[in-house]
Amino acid sequence: MCGIVGYVGQRKAVDVLIPGLQRLEYRGYDSAGIALQVEKGIEIKKSEGRLENVERLLNGSAESLQKSHTGMGHTRWATHGKPTTQNAHPHKTGHVVLVHNGIIENYLDLKRDILTRGHKPVSETDSELFGYLVLDEMDKGANLAEAVRKSFVGLHGQCSMVVMSEKEPGVIIGVRNGSPLVAAVDPQGGAIIASDAQAAISYTKDIFFLDHGEMVIATNKGLVFEDLKTGKTVKREPVKLDWSVDKMNKGGFPHYMLKEIHEQPVVLVDTLNALLDRNKHTPFPLSDQPAVRLLENARQLIFVACGTSWHAASIGKYWIESLAKIPVSVELASEFRYRDAVLPSGTVVIGVSQSGETADTLAVLRDLKTKKIPTIGICNVRGSSISREADAVFYTSAGPEIGVAATKTFSSQLLVIYLIAGYMAHKSRATSDTTLAKCFEDLVKVPHILSDMLEPDSSMVRQVTGAVDSVKDAKGFFFIGRGTSFPMALEGALKLKEISYDYAEGYAAGELKHGPIAMIDLGMVVVVLAPKDLWRDKTVSNLEEVKARGATILGIGDTEDHDLKTLCDLWVGLPKEGRALEKGLLPFLLSPIVQLLSYHRAVYRGTDVDKPRNLAKSVTVE
Ligand code: F6R
Questions:
Q1: Which of 38, 164, 440, 604 is deepest in the core (most CB within 10 A)?
Q2: Whose CA is nearest to atom 12 of ligand 1?
């Protein structure tokens, strides 16, 4: 969604705003702009397209702009109105300038009202309308903070807003009314406001996460927090983020996505270390924490999530049901939200979201809290909305993920869910401790195996790139699998379509003949996920049907599965070390393969791998 950065302080504002917006580019955007306060007022430079266009405008502008110490910037992901320069933020209405992330739901009523008052909006956005409200309040005598507060009364929808006025130089107001907003004190004097901690993390690790309905006033002296409704000062404590700045650079890789795929072994170890108490002598020694205590009384689990997080939970369902033998359902948050779901007592709901901000997942957890259903979040971002609003949280320690396509956060979510499965199985005695001990021992081996698999010249990497080279002319892709490989097939297809824009479908292998097989012919590539697990033989029998219809078959399976390999045109073998692993752990090894397939295909197709079109990293609107 839209990215926001505001700065007031001792540094040159452009030196904070441009790098800050660059850090937020990963969220996806289609236009950008910045506003800078100079002696004679506030000047705006904005453009459709990339941030570089704004930088070019700035380079050709007066020195006073470069020297300004106060300003704000925005990357826009169009909702109301096309991605044009006119609709780009910031918007200036009289002496008021603002940037906005989110949606004003009652904007049509608002627009009528604004027009009746004689104003003439120049953009098609809902955002600009808010500026007129502030302007009118200030004209009636309110100061900027009061005017912003009053303008929020009667506004519907989730959003965050950052506002300045030429009448109050050196003041930047930020409001969180649903959509995330953070603030930080600049150790050199002044303050930063941003939609995401990544824009501030180069200056300080102490980040204030605003609550819904909170306002922050940033000046040279620092930050003051107020309740949006009452205007009363609120005392806030910062959260210390443990993200390192080098995790936010490409580290020699051509794309963030590739770097993040390669970080998986390390983030799995970090996630394990953060969640375990190695002094415990149980097979799955999860450290004592609120989320673990909530699991203890669970008789049924419901996972709610979207996209890739939903796929992680869907794989987890197989694990939890088979090891812990308790019922699990996995729900798309956007559907569950509006359903009359039956929630028997003993239900614990787990919201899985790397960003911790996904609007639908958050809405479900909020709603269930009011119904007194215990909620747990699995999140990667400390201080995010879900992490603060769920009753308890398991954090993944994946560090910042900049590529829009989820990769390392996905595998760390898998890890957390596997730990949950093992822990609950031990508690319920549904699986013997001997088996669980082997599961855990093998789990710990996974990062090492992944590390070898991801070596630059490993046979996996060579086979994947070779396969991508061989299917250059493919007109579409089907990913098929059974058991845990079914959600992994969905994930493979999602990765491919989101970054390479290829036609791609994921299917349960057994479903193929119930319709989709009609699509299979010459030119289609069928990626079959068939590791040697419970489901392998059934999947292979489905493959024969595909082969008969002329598709190119790319098999992913046990490296010594010669029968399967013979059926396939192209082949990626799982590493030998994977053979001795508990079969349930094989999704961890399949995951980098499908990720790399989509990555190399996208590179071949020349797409913007880290910032695919139309997508956003954190989806804070419905
Ligand atoms: C795909 C992807 C999305 C997200 C989905 C949920 O690569 O990243 O499908 O998984 O938008 O996001 P979170 O996990 O932040 O709730």
A1: 164
A2: 353
Residue 13 confidence class, pLDDT cut points 50, 70, 90: very high
Examine residue 290 and state whether it is found in any structural domain, yes or no.
Answer: yes
Between helix 127-139 and helix 144-152 the angle, nearest 10°, is 130
Q: Is the pLDDT of residue 206 over 80?
A: yes
Q: 371 C-alpha to center of ligand 1: Å?
A: 26
Query: What is the tens place of the pLDDT at every residue in 156-198?
Result: 888 899 999 999 999 999 999 878 899 999 999 999 999 988 8
Residue 355: CB within 6 Å of ligand 1? yes
Helix extents (H) in 297-372: 307-324, 333-336, 359-370
- CB distance 405 to ligand 1 below 6 Å: yes
End-of-domain residue from the set 452, 471, 487: 452
Q: Using a 6 Å cutoff on CB, does residue 493 contact ligand 1?
A: no
What are the φ and ψ backbone dihedral angles of 397, each rounded to 5 degrees? -110, 55
Q: Supply the DSSP symbol for 509.
A: G
Of all protein residues, the one whose alpha carbon is nearest to atom 11 of ligand 1 is: 307
Q: Give me the phi and psi of 308, to 5 degrees please.
A: -60, -35
Q: Which atom of ligand 1 is nearest to the CA of 618?
A: 15
Do residues 435 and 505 both lie within one domain?
no
Domain range for 291 is: 249-452
- Last residue within a domain, chosen from 223, 241, 259: 241
pLDDT for 245: 65
Q: Does any ligand 1 atom lie closer than 6 A to the CB of residue 618?
A: yes
Is 308 touching ligand 1 by the criterion CB < 6 Å? yes
Judge if pTM exceeds 0.85: no
CATH number at residue 492: 3.40.50.10490
The protein residue with its alpha carbon nearest to ligand 1, atom 16, reads 353
Q: Which residues are catalytic?
A: 2, 617
Q: What is the pLDDT of residues 497-543, one digit of tens each?
A: 999 999 999 999 999 889 888 888 889 999 999 999 999 999 988 88
Lowest mean pLDDT among 23-37, 117-131, 262-276: 23-37
Query: 600 C-alpha to center of ligand 1: Å?
Result: 20
Q: Is residue 253 domain-shared with residue 390, that is, in the same domain?
A: yes
C-alpha angle 100/102/105, rounded to 5°? 110
Q: What is the mean pLDDT of the chain?
A: 92
Distance CA 164, CA 183 (A): 16
For 371-384, what is the mean pLDDT? 94
